[in-house]
Amino acid sequence: MKYLSEEQNKCFVGTGELNKAGDSLAVFLDKYDPDKYQNPCNTVDTLVFTKEDSQVKRILLIKRGNHPCIGLWACPGGFVEFKENLYDAALRELQEETGLHDIEAEQLKSYGDYDRDPRTRIITTAFVALIDEGSQKAQAGDDAREAGWFDISDELVNKTEDKSLIKEEWLCRLSNADKNINICARVEVTYRKGILKNRTYKVVDGDGLAADHAAIILEGYHHVKEAFNA
């Protein structure tokens, strides 16, 4: 299989020795069959927040115009092209679905539960971006039926813990006055005591948000708020 050029392959030669089958890297790659095993698909989602007076104000969402989760609100995103970096894919999908451009973003996290999408095994990588309130207007495009800015807030409503684990229940509130939309998603946040938290966000009730996007949105919101308070 020829995936990269011979010049690009040079940095993967290692010590230059042959493997147990007696193959060099070039021969190994010629024999390699990427379709021998089932492979996951990769998508990207971008959470664009606005800031005003050192506070996070709103988040940009799109209404899905196609299956799955048609008619529900979600973060703008889509599939990564075969030879495309994740960051480039995130910004491309953002512009295609919302018209936003000249955005800087950073990678938040990958979400890979095997049952998070009914089409196939899909792993998504989420990015977060922060722009000034009112600096860009959104216009729905591509697979997005609508696009809109939603006020965002959160509330911790329950917390339990044992010797090693802390479990929290959060409300993630999203509202758009122009569209008369009010969403109150419920998300469970679990993390361990100690240095390595292994913090996980799980949707209890998405309340109009697609798939696991309530968890992704709340985790991104917490990430940006922590950055403000750092």
UniProtKB/TrEMBL annotation:
Pfam families per the UniProt record, alphabetical: NUDIX (PF00293)
CDD domains noted in UniProt: NUDIX_NadM_like
Gene Ontology molecular function, alphabetical: hydrolase activity
InterPro entries: NUDIX_hydrolase-like_dom_sf, NUDIX_hydrolase_CS, NUDIX_hydrolase_dom
Keyword check for Hydrolase: yes
Nudix hydrolase domain mapped to chain residues: 39-178
Name of this protein: Nudix hydrolase domain-containing protein
Natural source organism: Lachnospira eligens (strain ATCC 27750 / DSM 3376 / VPI C15-48 / C15-B4)
